[in-house]
Amino acid sequence: MDPAYEQLANRFRRVHKHLRKWAKRTDVSCYRIYEKDIPDQPLIVDWYDGDAVVWAFARTRNDNPEAEQAWLAQVLEAVAAGLDLGPERIHLKRRAPQKDRQSGDGQYERLEQRRAVKAVREQGLLFEVNLSDYLDTGLFLDHRPTRALVREQAAGRDVLNLFAYTGSFTCYARAGDARSTTTVDLSNTYLDWASRNAALNGQQPAPEHRFIKADCLAWLADAATASARYDLIICDPPTFSNSTSMPRPFAVEKDHPWLLSQCHALLRTGGVCYFSTNFRGFEFAADLPAFTIEDLTTRSIPEDFRNKRIHRCWRMVRT
Ligand SMILES: C[S@@+](CC[C@H](N)C(=O)[O-])C[C@H]1O[C@@H](n2cnc3c(N)ncnc32)[C@H](O)[C@@H]1O
Predict the structure, then answer these.
(1) Count of alpha carbons within 13 Å of 258, Cβ hemisphere only?
(2) 183 CB under 6 A from ligand 1?
(3) Domains in the chain, please, with CATH?
(4) Which of 147, 257, 300, 313 is the most buried (most CB within 10 A)?
């Protein structure tokens, strides 16, 4: 192996060894090993309980397809050596620059049909991940501490999970004895996945635990006039969303005052909204409804993430 890639393999090995002890102690089987630590190696490497998912970003020095292929081959060799994995356990994904998990275009498309699907354990719960067929795996590792917070605070609460994806926050809320959960997402694929996640954790279908396929914005507009109110809302919207089933595109930067005012209307007094975004340049608008806002970001980003700007997260209490 080229010495530069031996060094990369050694880095993977060293970090993995260090995190393994922490992971065992905290009952976490999926964690981030590498995130663009070396500028010339624009990769993310995540460990999923015996498999590695490798996102390779555009690398400026690869100015032709052959150079790109040669680079990827060396990267895969370094991952295999550093993490002691056979090729069938390494899942390579390509990601264009500036596209984070919430930036819209194509991120939720199916990539292939290899069905590298398995259940992984996180803090006492089980989640189905698909390591091969989508750009994302079904479990966003950066919100692990936020999920734990939701579980701690869910007992006896009516919980609303907006933009719910595979329902991991909902599983935590039910594990924390939420009185009811309402899980809303635009996608049937992800709602079915959320139901499977519930089943994996022994959470039986029940009338007080609802899965709703809807555009959250349309649903929120109607919900404000209905009678149901909530104690805890998780609102982790995409940066942009422009599905054909929506009347107009959503952009968190522009639309968050309306989104948060609808959440405010649905919260009981003293109720809490956990609001999060991956949009780097995010600033709250001046015209927010009456919330006491606490920035949780330093606590909500897990210790395996070197990138402390992966998301921002606030605890917003309805006054
Ligand atoms: C970034 S994920 C949210 C992450 C999730 N909160 C979590 O931590 O697992 C984006 C999700 O929002 C959903 N989505 C995007 N636009 C939506 C909309 N207007 N209404 C409902 N769901 C939407 C997508 O289907 C996808 O499941």
Answers:
(1) 12
(2) no
(3) 3-97 (3.30.750.80), 142-318 (3.40.50.150)
(4) 147
